[in-house]
Amino acid sequence: xxxxxxxxxxxxxxxxLRGQLARLKRPxxxxxxxAGALYFGTLLFNSQMPSPLSGSTSSALxxxxxxxxxxxxxxxxxxxxxxxxxxxxxxxxVQLLFxxxxxxxxxxxxxxxxxxxxxxxxxxxxxxxxxRGGTTLPFWMRAISLWIILSTMYLHRVGAxxxxxxxxxxxxxxxRGNLIPIVVVATTVLxxxxxxxxxxxxxxxxxxxxEGGEALxxxxxxxxxxxxxxxxxxxxxxxxADSSRHWLVAILPAFALMAxxxxxxxxxxxxxxxxxxDAAAKRARAMAATRNPRRRSVAIAEGAVPKPWFAxxxxxxxxxxIIWKNVLAYTRALxxxxxxxxxxxxxxxxxxxxxxxxxxxxxxxxxxxxxxxPLIMLIILGPGFVRADLRQDLLQLDQLRSxxxxxxxxxxxxxxxxxxxxxxxxxxxxxxxxSLAAFDSHAPVPIAPAVLIALVALPTLxxxxxxxxxxxxxxxxxxxxxxxxxxxxxEAMGQNVLAILVSLxxxxxAMFLPLVVAxxxxxxxxxxxxxxxxxxxxxxAAPIGAxxxxxxxxxxxxxxxxxxxxxxxxxxxxxx
Amino acid sequence: xxxxxxxxxxxxxxxxxxxxxxxxxxxxxxGLVGPNGAGKTTTLRSIAGIIVPxxxxxxxxxxxxxxxxxxxxALLAFIPDEPQxxxxxxxxxxxxxxxxxxxxxxxxxxxEPLLIEMELLEKRGALxxxxxxxxxxxxxxxxxxxHAPSALxxxxxxxxxxxxxxxxxxxxxxxxxxAGAAVVLSSHLLHLVEELCTRLLVMQRGRVIxxxxxxxxxxxxxxxxxxxxxxxxxxxxxxxxxxDSRSAPA
Lengths: 576, 250
Hints:
The complex is a heterodimer.
Chain A: H1 3-23, H2 27-45, H3 60-79, H4 91-97, H5 104-129, H6 139-170, H7 172-177, H8 179-208, H9 212-221, H10 225-236, H11 244-266, H12 273-291, H13 318-333, H14 336-357, H15 360-385, H16 390-393, H17 397-402, H18 407-437, H19 447-475, H20 493-528, H21 538-566
Helix pairs in contact in A: 1-5, 3-6, 3-10, 5-6, 5-20, 6-11, 8-9, 8-14, 10-11, 13-18, 14-15, 15-18, 18-19, 18-21, 19-20, 19-21, 20-21
Chain B: E1 2-11, E2 14-24, E3 29-33, H1 40-47, E4 55-60, E5 63-64, H2 69-75, E6 76-79, H3 91-101, H4 107-117, H5 133-145, E7 151-155, H6 163-178, E8 182-186, H7 190-196, E9 199-204, E10 207-212, H8 214-220, H9 229-247
Parallel strand pairs in B: 3-8, 3-9, 6-7, 7-8
Antiparallel strand pairs in B: 1-2, 1-4, 4-5, 9-10
């Protein structure tokens, strides 16, 4: 790498670390770090303590899951990825490096090297979280294995985005120039998709007799999947080696695979500068707003403006205006093409399965599963991904604070904004699943009480987890990424998992009292009716548990309202 | 309308504003001038309730910004030098949003005249990204004026405006003051300050070095008599620098 770029990389990293260490002078940050260090330190050194993610890698099925996840991640990067390059440059880098006499490949190498900081942090997090993943390998071997997996995935994501950028910016010439990777990926995705869809009925049948894992393993070891998944299998093999000797044998092909990506990425002749510069300018405006409130501006958005979903009456509670604004902003920022692709995918899968099975009940059962999976993901991951709240609006803190509203009202309205969006999406999936259950003669749970409980529990759960997420943004603005600048990509997965994990732990703690109260009420109802405790007993208990939860939230939001008035803008974006 | 008393704002050991005291009466335009880092924006943001002062009090319309922030904020508008807009709301939606926040019942009737005044009528359906820098500034100003504030805080209000926009902005400020609004205006453009402001407050390193009408300020410094505001300003700043260096520990 160029000497100047090496200097920039080293000094930026050093200064950033200094800034982060300086933040620990604040007791709030210090306490959080100590608590985190205690938890993860115990996790790392105490073999008796269960790891939240251990066990998922303890079998051949785990290896299969890893392979599938990596395949899906890489394929979705090609199919659903953005047309902007995955290389993220700051405004300063764009202004100073782009006009400098540097080759494009040098800029790519610089960014790849810079990403290693995030990759290495992710490796550390994953090694701790997966420390007992059914392997006897020492710490450093697992770390190297994970480093190769994450680095390869990062390089592939960058390479894929450069190919896409090249195709978009050069039009048909760009497509022709990258014809080989485009054709290979398209063919691969189609073959895998078609093979998996055709196999769904047989895998489901095997799952019903408890042989789902074996059926999946058979599927992936049969052609053509075995051939397609071979490179992915090579990549994950070192992590699952059962001895140091096997690890040494497995690590070489995995390393070679990673090494092959490097020249591909650094020599892809994609003119990414314009797209990168646009993205950097947008990000810089948002970030400038956090560092210096006098330098605010807006982001670039193009295209026709859709009408609001509902009109905002001129009078009424002002907090509704904030919810209206946030819901409108979220729906306008949605990528409709991605949604359309997902809906098309579900329809294709449904049609293919029906053509194989020809049984409505079976199809309904699969449909329920297809609704349940995103519903569960929305419950767990939704609060991290839908961010139409303070995590966006803290960038406009001056504006929010100038409004004639209490801090707690603004915080509550911001939390309610994302809660409304998430709950609406969850209700939609719930309604779909419940409708399909009407056709399913073997529904796994009693539908009516489950739906009634979910109608109360989902918004409550969303409100709790979003209060945690927004509270974190307010109390630790230096740690929470604000605006659209959320850490993306597999290389940042470690820090995202860490954030989700911490959020889940705090959410579970907050849910403890409401759950205890709801269970006591349900037990009382069952005892009064002289029946055993069942789902129906929780129907009247759920609203009471929700009331307790909202009581807790009311107190927390009052407190956060005071924090809102005192949040220091200088903490929002770390210096350097 | 605006009463600031012994306002101090510190960031750690650094005092951005030191014991500032002044009042602005209805209809008055106070010009806040000073070199970069003098504490002008910190002062405006403290008055607007955006940052919490370390000590001192700020009252707007008799309401203390610390103890009755909602009532005080309902009376004022803060217009920063860089427009703060929501990227997914159109021009008109911004105004509807602000109308609801400030409880402006006749907001729909006020919006169109305001858009005409700011020359944004044709852009009412556009997102901020489709607006030029000057148009975004005009939209931020329109948002500030929608609820007819009694106190107007303007930080470099002419930034990004074209000559015609500047002229219109100046007449808007003057009209609001004539209508009884108390205006505090921070600017480096001394000709603007001279043209619009009824009084001046010169700040340096967080403290007041002069306050009053230009005539009152010059009366205390006969050597500056007959000189332009720019010369007066530079002389005051220069004197302030010398005072600071004399009082600094050796």
